[in-house]
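Everyone, carefully examine this protein record:
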Amino acid sequence: GAGKPLGNVPAAGKDDETPTTTTGPGVQPPEAPPQPTTPALSDTRHDAIEAVTWQVRVAAAWVWRLLLIGAGLYILAKVLHRIELVALAFAISLFLTAVLLPLKRLLRRVMPGPPTLPALLTLLVGVAVLVGIGWFVVWQISSHSSELANKVSGSIDKIRNWLHTGPLHIKSQDLDKVTTNITNTIKSHQGQLISGAITAVRTVAEVLAGILLTIFITFFLLRDGEVVWGWVLRLFPSRAQQRVDVAGRAGWGSFGGYMRGQVFIALFHGISIMILLFVLRVPLFAALGVLIFLGSFIPLIGLTITGAVCVAVALIEHGVTAAIVVTIGIIVLLQLEGHVLQPVIMSRSVDLHPLAIALGVSTATIVAGIAGALVAVPLLSFLNTTIRALRAPLPEAVAIETATGEPSPPGTKPGAADAAPEAAGP
């Protein structure tokens, strides 16, 4: 009847309700509301993590883990810096143990029984050799110090005359002024020189303490190296001890092979330069040969720096010609080391690319100075071999251990760290 709503027209007073529709012939259904063309700012039906791609998640996982590793290494470096004397003494002891271990094994076969006597004799031989080298160097320098001082003084006079009469034409008054300024600077900083002398005395005391500690640690590593290694293994879970044992022995074999090979290379360098300087009649030929021997333990840069000292002494003693000859000799030795000695002697012990060696030595020198340069390559060699053995299946890890040479200690099977038939290196 009249007054009733028609079709889908809402009734009065029902505007807030859902409109109703009627079906029938000629009646069209309502159109669907338009869908938004942009996504909603927030959608509780999805987790926000799902919007992060897999690549970003992997990168983030790498980043926070690397940050934790970097923080751990930084803390470790700080701790080692606080105990620098102990850490350096322990590192040098490992070097000496790796070099003296073959002699200790030989004495152990000749003198069966308690391991104390072979270890003590080996240590005494090593100390005697080091003391003899030090005494020889001091004797060479002291016996030729006056002659060298006169040569240096004459060279300074020649340089002064060349600056005055050469192409620079520096006036004598300017040279005298520079000399006077240097003298006045030394006189005005006598207090600092005295404090520096006190610091030098303290440093000498620390060096003596470090030497005694090094001798003490080396003796016990030679005598009880197997016991120490067994204690280290027990820090790991029992399921991982066999793999850690094999990897550690492989790393130690690589480390010892590197040290013994480096001693041979350093001897070759030192003897070669000593013969060259003897032929040129340089007075300090023996001491400079020892200097070359010590510098050769720092790869790449050690021989270059010590060779520059030899060139300078040859220049002072016999002029430019002798300096050129010594420079050529140093270059030849560097080429022999890089292309003959290192590949032949170190091929089994050190499987490192020259770029890795250069970056490692440079970084370690910046971080820890000369000590870092000495430790860099042996540490890289040890870590490289150990990590390879840890990641390889156990038969391949044993093959890696065998390829690095006879590991320390001998006569034990992988995983038998607690059985100590012989005290050897760590």
